[in-house]
């Protein structure tokens, strides 16, 4: 009986420990922009924006042993042109997840495309801090929204990489947070406004993508 | 909260049959600990009402403090993706840290000179502190600019500890002047808001004060 109780205590202890491994939502509402998170540079892995005045956010996923905000995916697209393309992608969903019949389909992912040099490195990525790409076609910055059935591409967009900073939450390897603002217009009637992101990545991951 | 402190003091005064021994003190207080990278400096004028209900012969002490805050200011950066505007601007923010303390403990005599205990050590172990730190930003273009890592007001009540040193000087009329130095520990409470870090933390005052001690019924309570 005593041995059984001891086993139960260990199971409960392990379950509580593992349950505590979930990461917080890190959503801190901006009082000036309801439904959007504040602009931060703390590696919160949070990205929000308005799409036609409706708030969108990257989802929070609950897993068997904890949960976390869905994070960013970075891809280097090699091209035959003078420059390659850096693609930043994250999932999005309506901040208010209530679906009303007749409302337009929710968008499912946000993609930012940035032209980069052929030898673009991790150091170059960190050096993006403080760079604002203007809202015109000369930079070839673009944005893409996906939903279940369609993708839409901007003619031009504006992205501002506000800051990159060492991320103290990553302890096992060198990591940094990078945060910024974005906005764009797709076609005649889709407006992406007040976009802001605060992501955390490791140097190892970035080196792997950019090699 | 301030009314609770006043009420508690009033009730204790009524119930106590001994001769109250009051000290009214003021001085200057600076912040003993500042968060790394923070621009917030919290200085105050403390006003302290101290009560030794059993006279200087007994070490028990009750202390009620209010800290009159000096307003302090700092700057945050705000950014915009709108390329028709400057990429970043500075936005001024101001802090006002209101604070109330209610504490009880001991005023322990440590040195005696000519039949009067001159030096004391204060050990205030039953200590409740209420801090209300208000942050206010000046007007800026909220439609276009976003402040990075914006600060917010913080209001908490928690426990703390304080120690201090006191020098007592006896006046010809048998009242006393007190010169005091007190240190207060940080509040035993989290200084973030639901996990959101602020650029500042709670006030941990270092107080230098002088006070006038009024002895009630000087015929009996001298030492």
Q: If you had to describe this structure to a student in words, what would you say it looks like?
A:
The complex is a heterodimer of chains A (211) and B (223). In chain A, the strands form four sheets. Chain A has a seven-stranded antiparallel sheet. In chain A, strand 7 (73-77) and strand 8 (84-91) form a beta hairpin. Chain A has three helices and 16 strands. By secondary structure, chain A is mainly beta. Chain B has one helix at 2-15, and strands at residues 21-31, 44-51, 60-69, 72-79, 88-113, 116-137, 146-147, 154-170, 176-184, 205-215. In chain B, strands 1-2-3-5-6-8-9-10 form an eight-stranded antiparallel barrel. In chain B, a hairpin with an 8-residue loop joins strand 4 (72-79) and strand 5 (88-113). The interface between A and B is medium-sized, with 28 and 17 residues.
Short structural description:
Chain A has helices at 2-19, 122-126, 203-210; strands spanning 29-30, 33-37, 46-51, 54-57, 60-63, 66-69, 73-77, 84-91, 93-94, 109-116, 131-133, 142-146, 151-153, 156-166, 175-186, 190-202. Chain A has 211 residues and is mainly beta. In chain A, the strands form 4 sheets. A 7-stranded antiparallel β-sheet of chain A has the order 9-4-3-16-15-14-11. Chain A has a 5-stranded antiparallel β-sheet with strand order 7-8-10-12-13. In chain A, strands 1-2 form a two-stranded antiparallel sheet.
**Most extensive chain interface and residues per partner:** A-B, 28 and 17 residues
Bulk shape of chain B: elongated
- Based on helices, strands and strand pairing, what is the structural class of chain B? mainly beta
Order of helices and strands of chain A: HEEEEEEEEEEHEEEEEEH
Question: How much helix, percentage-wise, in residues of chain B?
Answer: under 10%
Overall strand count of chain B: 10
Mean pLDDT of chain A: 81
The overall average pLDDT of chain B, rounded, is 86
List low-confidence stretches of chain A: none
N/C terminus separation of chain B: 35 Å
What is the count of helical runs of chain B?
1
**Spatial order of strands in the largest sheet of chain B:** 1-2-3-5-6-8-9-10
Q: Please describe the biggest sheet of chain B, giving its number of strands, its sense, and whether it closes into a barrel.
A: 8 strands, antiparallel, barrel
The DSSP helix count of chain A reads 3
Q: Which structural class matches the secondary elements of chain A?
A: mainly beta
- Rg of chain A, nearest Å: 20 Å
User: What portion of residues of chain A belong to β-strands?
Assistant: over 45%
Q: Strands of the biggest beta sheet of chain A: in what spatial order?
A: 9-4-3-16-15-14-11
Low-confidence stretches of chain B are none
